């Protein structure tokens, strides 16, 4: 399965993605501002690979003037339902449909790894104003938590493709190697409490489940549900994440 196929697999599951994927903590945006050396309030921000608008909405709430860029039909349709007042244009990070020196921030939430950094890095620098910042981040399941590590092992055994399933630390280093930019890194730990069913739906919205198909996904989730209920008999899970953040300035 190609990277492009994985990337476009989300379009058929856009509503489930919007409903079940985790958001981001306020401390992430504090860190973005600190590392960029400028506030988001009033800034012109291009949110690339915006998907259903999870990060875009938070940037907008922070007071940024945001335009979203998204290549997928299903994601764009869901975005417009969720954020009808925020502009969205079709395109991707390898060829941004944006003018030179037009953005104070370019952000990628869970999306930079779908680009070719040899193309997307120069594009970001073209669109950023002098002193502007490129901010990339990923929610990563925190494997320092025992139950998360155990679940990760079960997923890896079933699908054999962990990095694509839930992300992996070291993204910043891989980004630096391929993008040729001088990044500063920060990690932001956080948690959220959700039902077992929401947690399972979150898992099912990841690309490896989507491309594996409904039968394989159902088989894994049917095995996973009783394992989780043994740990969380009340049916409420505290999901643990670490946001991997990388910021480079122009």
Produce the secondary structure layout.
Layout: H1 3-8, H2 14-20, H3 26-36, E1 44-48, H4 54-61, E2 65-70, H5 73-82, E3 88-90, E4 103-109, H6 117-127, E5 128-141, H7 146-159, H8 162-166, H9 171-179, E6 184-195, H10 196-204, H11 207-212, H12 214-231, E7 236-249
Parallel strand pairs: 1-2, 1-4, 2-3, 4-5
Antiparallel strand pairs: 5-7, 6-7
Largest sheet: 7 strands, mixed
| CATH level-1 class | Alpha Beta
| Series of secondary-structure elements, N-terminal to C-terminal | HHHEHEHEEHEHHHEHHHE
Tally of contiguous helical segments = 12
Distance between the termini: 35 Å
Helix content: 40-55%
Strand content: 15-25%
- Beta strands, count: 7
CATH H-tier superfamily: Vaccinia Virus protein VP39
Reported by name, the CATH topology is: Rossmann fold
Determine the mean pLDDT. Answer: 89
Can you tell me the overall shape?
Answer: globular
What is the count of distinct domains? 1
What value does the Rg take, in angstroms?
18 Å
Question: What this model shows, in words?
Answer:
- With 250 residues, the protein is of the alpha/beta class.
- The protein has one domain (3-142, 167-193, 240-249): Vaccinia Virus protein VP39 (Rossmann fold).
- 46% of the residues lie in helices and 24% in strands.
- It contains 12 helices and 7 strands.
- It has helices at residues 3-8, 14-20, 26-36, 54-61, 73-82, 117-127, 146-159, 162-166, 171-179, 196-204, 207-212, 214-231, and strands spanning 44-48, 65-70, 88-90, 103-109, 128-141, 184-195, 236-249.
- It has a 7-stranded mixed β-sheet.
- The longest helix has 18 residues, at 214-231.
- The radius of gyration is 18 Å and the shape is globular.
